[in-house]
TrEMBL record:
Protein name stated in the entry: Head-tail connector protein
Pfam families hit by this protein: Phage_connect_1
Lineage, highest ranks first: Bacteria, Pseudomonadati, Pseudomonadota, Gammaproteobacteria, Enterobacterales
Amino acid sequence: MLITLEDIKSQLRLEADYSEEDQYLALIGKAAESRMSEYLNRNIYVEGTTIPPTDPDGMIIPASLRLALLLLVTHFYENRSAVSEVEMVELPMAFTWLARPHRIYPQ
């Protein structure tokens, strides 16, 4: 994973030993990573990984994308339903602001 369960818990201000939602937290972490890769149209690799020569658009995750992932996880965690009595908000602008410079647009 590009972000660890510990990163996610820290971002959400959950105690490190809180484990009741670990499966859910791992799920939204994986979903955020998948969505990020789809948005960018490229594969993202953890630091220390060698990008395969068959993936010319692959990239090592920079700090800006780590933060964007954590913001996306926070959004998923705090908005667990697509239907609500309160006004639903679109994904925070900060995610797009952080991720867009790394996006590859299909030709």
